[in-house]
């Protein structure tokens, strides 16, 4: 196994430095973090910790956009047994139900700390079509300007297999590029990219830094067993490619515990993906 630190290794950096120096961050929240795997209930105490972290970042002058999963997981409770795959139309209805509950929880948590919240439900067209992308970006910029924390999700209630993103890892990466974010944080149910799925192989090792997504790195990524998760590590590496091509950093970290951003700042396990060189002239929308 070649070195797990790709390319020339860099002086040890702390995650805290990376996060603190980011003017604008995108925080992606996986379904398994915000919705209880068994009941589909929103994990309220956990959400309070996340929002506490977000508000702390904003209070020190940083801008944060949240990309949240969980609409289908939360809404699925209306369809009885949680252990079966929903049909497309059931999934759309579940998302329509769950999204309202998600946004209510985000709204109440932010309101308790004096912040507003704004919801954007995007389709692939909103990011791929330049005019619609500029429009979505303008809305996000305006929300940040008025001190409302933007919360983004895919518009699952109406997207179909033909026009959906399908996973929020890549959606978050595209949103980060859209708004020229400095760091994309993927909060997941695993510490980062491992040499193999750690649920399959407890001896798998955590990859701490990636500077080039080689076939060796790609071969490590598998899908997810989690019921409502859509991407596994495969879509996270796709997101990393978007990030590295666009010139911003990405980090995957385990968000299960409370105060997940503080855990990264305090040097908790994670995988950082660094673009070869910060592309100052990166393509703009
Ligand atoms: N090489 C790997 N390293 C880490 N996790 C992996 C890997 N390959 C597959 N996985 C799986 O991907 C899961 C994380 O993806 P997912 O369940 O979709 O989380 P999220 O809800 O954050 O999108 C892990 O729990 C793990 O089971
Ligand atoms: N838009 C979907 C998210 C799908 C998704 O990417 O889920 P996850 O893999 O848990 O981040 C929802 O809100 O359920």
TrEMBL record:
Cellular component terms (Gene Ontology): cytosol
Matching PROSITE patterns: GLUTAMATE_5_KINASE (PS00902)
Entry function: Catalyzes the transfer of a phosphate group to glutamate to form L-glutamate 5-phosphate.
InterPro entries assigned to the protein according to its UniProt record, in alphabetical order: AceGlu_kinase-like_sf, Asp/Glu/Uridylate_kinase, G5K_ProB, Glu/AcGlu_kinase, Glu_5kinase, Glu_5kinase/COase_Synthase, Glutamate_5-kinase_CS
Reaction catalysed by this enzyme: L-glutamate + ATP = L-glutamyl 5-phosphate + ADP
Amino-acid biosynthesis keyword on record: yes
Annotated source species: Bradyrhizobium uaiense
CDD domains: AAK_G5K_ProB (cd04242)
Pfam families: AA_kinase
Domain of life where this protein originates: Bacteria
UniProt gene name: proB
Gene Ontology biological-process entries: L-proline biosynthetic process
Protein name: Glutamate 5-kinase
